[in-house]
Amino acid sequence: MARWTPERKRKLRIKTGFSLYYIIFLIFIYGPMIAMFILSFQGRRGGTSFPMRGWSLHWWKKLFEPSLVGDMQGAMGRSIILAIMVMIVIALFSTMLAMAFRKKFRFSNVLFYTILAGLMVPGILLSLGLAMVLRQLGISPNWYTSAFAVHVVWALPFGFLVMMAVFNRFDSSVEEAARDMGASEWVVFKEVTLPLITPGIVAAGLFGFTLSYDEFARTTLLSGEFNTLPLDINASMTQRIRPTLFALGTVSTLFSLVMIGLFLGIYTILYRRSH
């Protein structure tokens, strides 16, 4: 039988500590989601807290009825469309920027930190500043113009960092080999570079989608007449909070998980093909 030496006891304490931290982390992350899912099935007279007062689909049916506060279905549709638009732009622009930084050029360091500086600007200040500029120019804000622009500014540094990490691990010798065989720059990019970096492009696009889908602060003053889903949820919370919000939150969370799973599946397939 193995003896409990001081070193073994120390390692056991460390493992136990990390295990407890991991369990607490999972509870904080998934506990509210599970509670929200369960409470969305409250009975007609149920509230927003336990204990449950019966079980029903009453509050789920309320999702498809007109709301006094906002159009939840329309808001969710706008959020999805906006997130897809941001995803496409982030995937494209972050790839172009990262490819440009593969070679040193004048003021490259300044440009690099200028891009990252967008992460340090408080979202509400960015939203307020752009709203004031648009007002001075006489331009009305809209979720598909001004909100779209500010979402791209917010998400671009994340996608850029993802693609920079991809190119830092990229073996450029395969490109050189293709050039030595007489391939043009376009053929090298299309047949060699693009297949190898496609998993990274998918990951950058996923960052853009998720950051845009649940963005609140940067959209507050720039969505115009029609709200996105986070703004509509916030507006609903100014009234009496009902389990309908839990049903909506469950739908939104499940949609996000499905999208993340889809992107991870695509990423895995593309990664295996490129390696």
What can you see in these coordinates?
The chain has 10 helices and no strands. It has a single domain (70-274), classed as MetI-like (MetI-like fold, Orthogonal Bundle), CATH 1.10.3720.10. Helix 3 (72-100) crosses helix 6 (146-168), helix 3 crosses helix 9 (229-237) and helix 8 (185-213) packs antiparallel against helix 10. It has 275 residues and is mainly α. 69% of the residues lie in helices and 0% in strands.
Measured by DSSP, the beta-strand proportion falls in under 5%
* Broad shape: globular
Mind telling me the C-alpha Rg?
A: 24 Å
Q: Give the terminus-to-terminus CA distance.
A: 46 Å
Low-confidence stretches: none
What is the CATH C level class, in words?
A: Mainly Alpha
Please write the string of helix (H) and strand (E) elements: HHHHHHHHHH
- CATH architecture annotation name: Orthogonal Bundle
Instruction: Count every beta strand, where a strand is a DSSP E run of 2 or more residues.
Output: 0
Instruction: Briefly note the CATH topology name.
Output: MetI-like fold
Query: Helix coverage percent of residues?
Result: 55-70%
- Report the average pLDDT across residues: 82
How many helices? The count is 10
Total separate domains: 1
Derived structural class: mainly alpha
Largest sheet: none
CATH H-tier superfamily: MetI-like
